[in-house]
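Dear H.,

Thanks for agreeing to be a second pair of eyes. The structure we're designing against is below in token form, covering all 92 positions.
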């Protein structure tokens, strides 16, 4: 293999490693922001399955609002992950 071809391959390999490393970082951010949200929503769902009264809704309303307020963080992290995946796709 010529030195130029070998250098080109090594450069491409380094790019791929950086891209996948960045994607793993973005994926970790998504997991970190999504897990508490899903856990809280699941807990509220279980609570409402047992008690579907207005009082139960009043009990969880502030938690539901709090969970909904974190949606922008989840969307931001998902958007960054999607951008990273798109960047990898464009480099193909």
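And this is the sequence the design step returned. I haven't edited it by hand at all.
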């Amino acid at each position: 293999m010529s030195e130029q071809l070998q250098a080109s391959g090594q450069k491409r390999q380094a790019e791929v490693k950086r891209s996948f490393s960045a994607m793993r970082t973005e994926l970790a951010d998504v997991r970190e922001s999504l897990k508490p949200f899903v856990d809280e929503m699941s807990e509220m769902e279980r609570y409402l399955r047992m008690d579907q009264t207005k009082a139960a809704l009043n009990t969880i309303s502030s938690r539901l609002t709090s969970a909904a307020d974190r949606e922008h963080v989840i969307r931001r992290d998902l958007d960054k992950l999607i951008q990273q995946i798109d960047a990898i796709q464009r480099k193909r």
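Two observations from my side: The two ends are 22 Å apart (CA to CA). DSSP finds three helices and no strands in the chain.

Warmly,
E.
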